[in-house]
Amino acid sequence: MSNNEDNVRQRIKTEKAALKEKVEEIRKKMKEKEANQQRWQGLFVMLKPALFIMLVLLVFIGLFVYFTTEMDSQSDDTMEVVEEVEEIFAEDEL
């Protein structure tokens, strides 16, 4: 009986040790995941303002390009009208 009890006690001890190892592994993995999450959060905290500034600059550049092309097309139209008026004046002078 003593041998059987010793075996049971030994098995319980090994099971406890294995369980402790698993718990320690899980804790270690959780700490690593938490550290990774904190790194990503720190990175996003740094990148958000930079991305916002880049987005604002991109919008301004887009608006600048749009309005300059609009102004160019309007100036082209104006030049055509001026040329037509000059042609009319030239015809009247003849």
Key traits:
94 residues, mainly alpha, 1 helix
Write up what this structure looks like.
By secondary structure, this protein is mainly alpha-helical. Helices cover 98% and strands 0% of the residues. The protein has one helix and no strands. The longest helix has 92 residues, at 2-93. It is rod-shaped. The model has no long low-confidence stretch (mean pLDDT 86).
* Count of individual beta strands: 0
Query: Helicity level, as a percent range?
Result: over 70%
Number of helices, where a helix is a run of at least 4 consecutive DSSP H or I residues = 1
- What's the order of the H and E elements? H
- Rounded to an integer in angstroms, the radius of gyration calculated over CA atoms is 40 Å
- The backbone outline, from C-alpha atoms, is rod-shaped
Estimated share of beta-strand residues: under 5%
By helix and strand content, what is the structural category? Answer: mainly alpha
Secondary-structure map:
Layout lengths: L1 H92 L1
What's the quick description here?
The chain is mostly helical. It has one helix spanning about 1-94.
